[in-house]
Design goal:
Layout (H helix, E strand, L loop, with lengths): L5 H15 L3 H21 L9 H5 L1
Length: 59
């Protein structure tokens, strides 16, 4: 995977853990997940202003 071995992945993980701390990482991952979900919804043309059930009613 991108020429990165297991040892390098462990070192990167430890550095991130030390830099952000154990309590901050889940919050960062949650924000990342929301960003990815928003991007996917945008690519599919889904609009946040409409509830999911009302999209079908307009058509």
């Amino acid at each position: 995977m991108f020429g990165i071995g297991l040892q390098e992945m462990i070192i990167i993980t430890l550095v991130v853990l030390l830099f952000f701390g154990g309590k901050k990482i889940p919050e960062l991952m949650k924000g990342l997940g929301k960003g990815v979900r928003s991007f996917k919804d945008g690519m599919n043309g889904k609009d946040d202003s409409q509830p999911e059930g009302e999209e079908d009613k307009k058509k």
